[in-house]
Amino acid sequence: MSSLTKALFSSRTSVFSTAFLLRTVLLVYGIYQDSVSALKYTDIDYYVFTDAARALARHSSPYDRATYRYTPLLAWMLLPTSWGGLWFHFGKALFALSDLIAGWFILRLVKRKGLQEERALRYASVWLLNPMVANISTRGSSEGFLCVLVMALLWTFETRRLALSGLLLGLCVHFKIYPFIYGASMIWALESPSTAISQPSISQRLLRFANPNRILLVLISISTFAALNLLMYNVYGAPFLQHTFFHHLTRIDHRHNFSPYNTLLYLSSAQAADPSITQGARSISFESLAFIPQLLLSTVLIPVATAKRDLPTTMLAQTLAFVTFNKVCTSQYFLWYLIFLPLYLPDSSLRRRPALGVSALTLWVLGQALWLQQGYQLEFLGHSTFVPGLFGASLIFFGINCWILGIVVGDAARKPPHPSVSVSTLDTNEASSSSTATSEAKQAKHPIAVNSDLKPRSTAARPHGNSGVDTSSIANVHLGPRDRVLKSN
User: Where are the stretches annotated Disordered (predicted)?
Assistant: First the structure.
């Protein structure tokens, strides 16, 4: 088994080929199950996507399809599904391929941490060879495509391509709202270099905060987002705004919802359907207020506390908080934070303390299993398990996710803040030789790796400056008439 594992992670070709084969098998099996079983493998949302694409093919609006709550870009992408036959599964293949592209970005980002190829492939496989990820994509969920955009966003930002980062951020938020939370961390991480002013005034602090890099990122991301929205509004009018954005403020979806709000949403949906309920009684609904703790955590507290220390881990914590505290939480949403897991694990306490890591994984899986058991009783067998079964299972899963969130935030908070770096927009055109020189400079500056996956290099025997200079008496250097002594480290 060990030799088989070693052979698997010996090259990128073997890992990516295995990931491709896994998704191919699931895709073919899904087509077979759909043809012989009443329980369909294809996700219900995929039928919504393809119906909207067929509406476009008839020169109609994708919003003519009830429950289509997405950007028209998604329906445009899936136009080939309207051609009939096996083309119906084009979207599934596209989303499965997106998994592999996202895995390629993950591998590049993990290697930036200094890991060797084999180690980097092992961590990238947490996404590439994850059966849950492959299952969700091959069932027709579009989250895999969004994950590609998010990883591309992180890659461009980490490599200091700010203009492209702004464009991708605007595209991500147009495609699905939640990536706007990453803008808070990216802006916070773009700190100006420290100045000699010991006690700057309020105006000086504001000028320092509004540095050119932050202004560039904000302007390009907002311009991209606005341009896409204006285009779609010009074509599809008010239904675009209502179904793509405004609907999420008041949505009361309660099916397949892991959130603790699930039972309350069910009761709200029943009240909304009852004409005897007065409008005044629902003037302020809790589903409109559920965003407060969610946004406070994911867009303010977590970015301020950790964005300058470890951006990928911060983005993981933000996403985990956003999904955990969201009023609607389905299994597809788990991919939003699982995509960051390979970037977090190398320096995490979950890996350094195997018992903690195994406990977190076990509880996370068992929490889902408990909820799914109650959901099966409700939706397939018709048993009323809302209280205490389903509600209790939701609270348990919520508690488990909050505990894991605390671990992730704690890991990020313990890291030292990155030194202030002035990011030049000219870096977008830097040559590969400059990147190599920068990498070598970083290795020289940090000779001992923090990551335990890297082999520490001793600096004791390394000469400093001119190796011909005698430094044996450096430990006792007199500094003037007070006979002060500078002790070496």
Answer: 419-475
Query: β-pairing, 477-478 with 485-486?
Result: antiparallel
How do residues 387-406 score in pLDDT, each as one tens digit?
888 899 999 999 999 999 99
Residue 288 is predicted with a pLDDT of: 66
How crowded is the C-beta side of 372, counted as CA atoms within 13 Å?
8
Q: Taking residues 336-342, what's their average pLDDT? A: 97
| Residue 260 DSSP SS3 | coil
* Nearest in space to 326 (alpha carbons), one of 408, 261, 402, 382: 261
Burial of 356 (0-12, 13-18, 19+ CB in 10 A): middle
Please give the full DSSP string across 344-409, using - where no structure is assigned. HGGG-HHHHSHHHHHHHHHHHHHHHHHHHHHHHHHHTT----IIIIIHHHHHHHHHHHHHHHHHHH
Q: Which amino acid is at 250?
A: T
pLDDT at 314: 97
Q: What percent of the chain has pLDDT over 90?
A: 62
Residue 251 phi/psi, 5-degree rounding, is: -65, 145
* Residue 471, helix vs strand vs coil: coil
**For residue 465, how many other CB atoms are within 10 A of its CB?**
7
Burial degree of 205 (CB within 10 A; 0-12, 13-18, 19+): exposed
Q: At what angle do helices 117-128 and 12-36 cross, to 10 degrees?
A: 10
The long-range contacts involving 298-306, CB below 8 angstroms and separated by at least 24 positions, are: 298/181, 298/322, 298/325, 299/180, 299/181, 299/184, 300/184, 302/185, 302/409, 303/181, 303/184, 303/185, 303/188, 304/188, 305/409, 305/412, 305/413, 306/409, 306/412, 306/413, 306/415
Q: Report the pLDDT value the prediction gives residue 197, as an integer from 0 to 100.
A: 54
**38 φ, ψ to 5°?**
-70, -25
Q: Is 382 left (phi over 0), alpha (psi -120 to 50) or beta?
A: left
Calculate ∠ Cα 210-212-217, nearest 5°. 90
> What is the C-alpha to C-alpha distance for residues 121 and 125, in angstroms, rounded to an integer?
6
Say yes or no to pLDDT of 145 above 90: yes
**Residue 230: predicted pLDDT:** 97
What the block records as the tokens of 290 is 């559920």
Range 253-275 burial, b when 16+ CB lie within 10 A, else e: bbebbbbbbbbbbbebeeeeeee
Residue 171 has pLDDT above 50, yes or no: yes
3-class SS at 50? helix
Proportion of the chain above pLDDT 70, given as a percent: 78
| CA–CA distance, 285 with 270 (Å, rounded to integer) | 14
Return the exposure string of 5-30: e unless at least 16 CB atoms fall within 10 Å of the residue's CB, then b.
eeebbeeeeebbeebeebbeebbeeb
Token reading at 80: 């080939």
| pLDDT of 194 | 57
- Residue 486 pairs in a beta bridge with 477
